[in-house]
Specification:
Length: 422
């Protein structure tokens, strides 16, 4: 049956070429129904695979994603509704505006995105745009580098569970953060010619901060109402995220079961054999193009490739994040005027830059110590941890993120005072 499906997929481009140009509009209108019909056929013929992969998606969402993201969503909703994000963002202008050319409040989205994981950075950025804290271009630039994988997944799931190399986790995390900062610098540099927005650094910093705190009294002061709305909004977002996780879990396993991924990887390997790129690495990258967890797991098991190639492939997949995450982001920003294109360009750049940083880092680190040497660390694998352990780790990361913001506030105030004294 899988060969019949592959033959059908191979005939589609030939049929499209032979059709007249005048019928392109009809082809576009029929494309989605055709894909849905093919998906239903796959569900019928590979029902066992579909059910098992759906159960894996439900387990991943319920035991990992829900406890990991819920605290971040609720806290970000509360801080945004009380106006504290905008007020403290004013103090962070001297750091964020010169480096990334975004308002100081963007630091909250960036730091929460780095410490929490996908798609918290996108959710906070969309909320800021809806509250008019960011212009359209600023929100698109911020989204391009603030939606990232968290340390819980990179260290706990990838390094410990998949590679069985705890020391590798810190290297992957540093390269991942360095890559997203590099993307932020690139986007900030390209936007220097834009006119400064209303939140640009100007006037008395502390005066503006005090004014914003006083204006915060106009926000709804009923904590019960705010908490209820924050929880309802967070639950709805997490339910949507769970739907995407389950759907793409089924899609990626059906693509593997039908042999479609292997067929594409073999075809591409014909042209990449001269550079010595392993077919298993290509397969893992293709899987990671759709879904991050399956792709990184396959990269860790590509034993025919070198250690540096396997780690670099996993780093690329983590940086790109996969169509599953991008679909979540698209759903989150759909209520705003934020375009998805700059975000996709940013994630593509981040994946490429992550490969360069990680490959170089592995070569340098391997000359000093053995990355594969096991060590004792106080972190469970994200995929094998209990619901309580994931919730506890999420709260720890939330605290780390808030403390990091506090340190950045202190640095920003010191920079402002030094600049003012000159």
């Amino acid at each position: 049956m899988k060969y019949i499906l592959l033959t059908f997929l191979a005939l589609i481009p030939i049929l499209l070429v032979r059709l007249k140009k005048s019928r392109v509009i009809y082809i576009k209108s029929l494309l989605l129904p055709a894909v849905c019909s093919l998906f239903i056929l796959c569900l019928m013929f590979f029902s066992e695979t579909a059910v098992n992969s759906a159960l894996k998606g439900v387990n991943l969402w319920l035991n990992v994603v829900f406890p990991s993201l819920f605290p971040f969503f609720v806290i970000s909703e509360l801080l945004n509704r009380t106006g504290m994000v905008k007020a403290f963002g004013i103090l962070l202008e001297p750091v964020m505006r010169p480096i990334f050319n975004v308002p100081g409040c963007g630091s909250f989205a960036f730091l929460m995105g780095v410490t929490s994981g996908y798609p918290v950075g996108a959710k906070i950025t969309a909320d800021m745009r809806a509250s008019r804290l960011l212009s359209k271009s600023e929100a698109e630039r911020l989204l391009a580098f603030s939606n990232n994988s968290g340390p819980l997944f990179i260290i706990g799931a990838v390094s410990v569970s998949m590679f069985n190399m705890p020391k590798l986790g810190l290297l992957l995390l540093v390269c991942h953060i360095a890559a997203c900062i590099t993307v932020g610098l690139i986007f900030g540099f390209r936007s220097r010619r834009e006119a400064a927005g209303p939140d640009a650094v100007q006037g008395n910093l502390f005066g503006r901060f005090k004014k914003e705190l006083l204006s915060g009294r106009n926000y709804n002061s009923n904590f019960g109402i705010m908490l209820g709305e924050a929880i309802r909004t967070s639950i709805m977002t997490i339910l949507a995220v769970g739907g995407f996780i389950i759907l793409f879990s089924v899609i990626i396993h059906l693509l593997l079961e039908t042999g479609f991924i292997s067929f594409i990887a073999y075809t591409v390997s014909i042209f990449t054999r001269r550079i010595g790129l392993d077919t298993d690495i290509l397969t893992s990258v293709l899987c990671g193009f759709f879904e991050i967890t399956t792709g990184t797991s396959m990269a860790s098991k590509a034993l025919n490739a070198s250690f540096a190639e396997r780690v670099a492939a996993a780093s690329m997949i983590i940086g790109w994040a996969g169509l599953s995450v991008h679909s979540q982001v698209l759903s989150i920003i759909s209520s705003t005027d934020i375009s998805i294109k700059p975000y996709l360009i940013g994630k593509g750049l981040q994946g490429i830059i992550s490969v360069i940083y990680t490959f170089t880092g592995v070569k340098i680190a391997s000359s000093f110590f053995d990355l594969s040497n096991p060590v004792f660390i106080n972190m469970s694998s994200q995929l094998g941890a209990s619901w309580y352990e994931n919730l506890y780790s999420s709260c720890q990361n939330l605290l780390i993120g808030l403390l990091t913001i506090s340190v950045c506030l202190i640095i920003s105030v010191i920079m402002y005072l030094i600049a003012k004294s000159k």
